[in-house]
Amino acid sequence: GLPRPYWAMGSVYIVAHPLTGATRSKALYRVLGTLLGAAAGILMVPPLVNAPPLLMGAVAIWTACLLYVALLHRTPRSYVFMLAAYTLPLVALPSVDNPAGIFDLAVARSEEICLGILCASVVGAVVFPASVANVLRDKSRQWMADATLWASDMLSASPGKQVSRHHSRHRLAADILALDQLISQLSYDAESAQRVRAARELRGRMTMLLPVMSSLATVVESLQSAGGVPEPLAAQMRAVKAWIQAGAAEGERPELTSTPVQAGWDAALVAAAEDRLQQMAALWHDCVSLCRRLGEKHIEGEWLPEFLRWDVGRARHYDHGMLLFSTVTVALAIFAMGMIWIQTGWADGAGAVALGAISCCFFAALDEPAPMIQSFFNWNVVCLLISMVMLFAVLPVAHDFEMLVLMFAVPYLIIGLLVAQPRLAMIGMPLAVVTANDIGISGAYSANFQSFFNSNLAGIAGIAFALVWTLAVRPFGTRAATHRLVRSGWSDIAENAVSTRPESHSTLRARMLDRLAQLVPRLAASESEVSADGFSEVRVELCTLALQREMAGLEADEQHAVNRVLRSVSGYYQSR
């Protein structure tokens, strides 16, 4: 006897995922977000309903604050806050004409959504369940295969002059962010704590491997320019290459020794190359052993790392200025739409504000949200046409529940296939959820064309307003985000190179590697005039950290020399 079954129907498609762990995590987060947003509506509407500008201000501020928190959490956990952000306008604004009914509306929405989530979770766990661990294992192996391409070119007898700019290195950095999503969902799978721990250790080792490989590639290029790689070092590189290509078997790692070279700049380069080669071999051993551990059916015993020189913390880089700007513009858009609704007295204006808020929230994390809002607008128009045909031409023929299910089965099976494919999900999801909401299935057929057209046209108008607003206030896009990321990296190097009390080295390493992972896809998508590839800044910062770490054991005159180098590095990046 629930009044709006289309809420449950839409929730099934929102929560459903080919991976069981992902379905469970989305289900939990959607329940929490819905309850949080509904509770906020119950608390806000009764005391503020007679002061519409205050109510719109409260809704705008709530949405912006929860959206800001959601953007800070770059994991599936952000869904709690994202959903709470836009659930409030969905629940609160349609209740302004009947504030006494806000509690019933909030309870009904929560019940419908929880029912849909329960159905999706049970079916996902029983019918063809798929493990996140298997996907994570396959993705990790593919990552190692891509890394092998770079390593093989770099460790060859005559590496190319541009081996430090190998085509696979950017993809490796970007793929680590994708692994983060899978690792966060792994804990919701029926997996042991040891497997989750192994996945997190693997992610850390992969993150450390990238700057080590980049540094080794740069040193090898320098040796090539200076007359070539000494034969003893080249032989060791070939041995490591053969070991990697053979699968990096346990106990078969080649022994690495020092190469005798006359003192001078070449000797420093050779020593650096040997050091990086040893680090790379140790990290590679750890990555391969952890990949194998993830693939084991039953994990036994404790894993012992080979690489112990330094670790990577869990700090992340956040551009708080850009996040604040994005959320404030969303708040202003919601408030502006709300005031237009209030001033015009539009009967269906609540729907416009709610859909406009959803459009702004969904794509706030993107550097260029306007194209996605445009696509969302286009598919909402398509959904309106489909729902019109379904509601006024197809559904009148259905005289019982079985016939109703049959009429929805064929189109929604096709839509389900679209939702399950990542590249088509942004088409399939509106078709599933928006069409169900537009049709508005209830206990009895009671279609009214005027009511149907006005309410759904209001939603499309809200999306159109969100698009125009976004084009006006966020015209800069990926180029500005890239520039800010690069500048942030330079600022970090300049500040910490000469700081008497630098931040924790593990924190700095984690932040700069996270910044690199954010920068890489933007560099490919933008035409930034900033001359940087991300990897060079990582190498410089790692070297400054190494100098600071070793400086305590140096003689006084050596410490002065190192300080001069660090001051020069800081001055260089301050002047850029």
Protein described:
- The protein has 576 residues and is mostly helical.
- It has three domains: 5-130 and 319-473, no CATH class; 132-295, Methane Monooxygenase Hydroxylase, Chain G, domain 1, CATH 1.20.58; 478-575.
- Helix content is 73%, strand content 0%.
- α14 (401-419) runs antiparallel to α15.
- The protein is elongated, with a radius of gyration of 28 Å.
- The mean pLDDT is 85.
Task: Note the topology.
Blueprint: H1 5-15, H2 20-48, H3 52-72, H4 78-92, H5 102-126, H6 132-154, H7 168-186, H8 193-225, H9 231-245, H10 265-295, H11 320-344, H12 349-362, H13 370-394, H14 401-419, H15 425-439, H16 449-473, H17 478-497, H18 505-525, H19 535-550, H20 556-575
Search tags:
20 helices; Methane Monooxygenase Hydroxylase, Chain G, domain 1; mainly alpha; 3 domains
Bulk shape: elongated
Number of strands: 0
Helix/strand class:
mainly alpha
The termini sit apart by 66 Å
Write down the domain tally: 3
| Number of helical elements | 20
Q: What low-confidence regions span 5 or more consecutive residues with pLDDT below 50?
A: none
Give the helix proportion (percent range): over 70%
The average pLDDT is 85
